[in-house]
Amino acid sequence: MDKVQKRASNVMRLAEQNEKLKAELRAMTERLEAAERRQRELAQAQAQKSGGGAQRQASGESAH
Predict the structure, then answer these.
(1) Would 28 be classed as within a structural domain?
(2) Domain count along the chain
(3) How far apart are CA 55 and CA 57, in angstroms?
(4) What are phi and psi of 50, to 5 degrees?
(5) Residue numbers of the chain with a pLDDT score lower than 70
(6) Reported pTM
């Protein structure tokens, strides 16, 4: 019985670690997506400053 309890305890510990890692991964993914979005916005703003805005509108892309 002791062996079964140890195994159950290990399973519970691993499940908790798994949930914690999944939460960390979600947070990291959100930060990465926000950084990528910000980078795109900055690139678009730079393109508009250098006259790329007319090209973007002609191709059907929005400025946001």
Answers:
(1) yes
(2) 1
(3) 6
(4) -90, 10
(5) 52-64
(6) 0.63
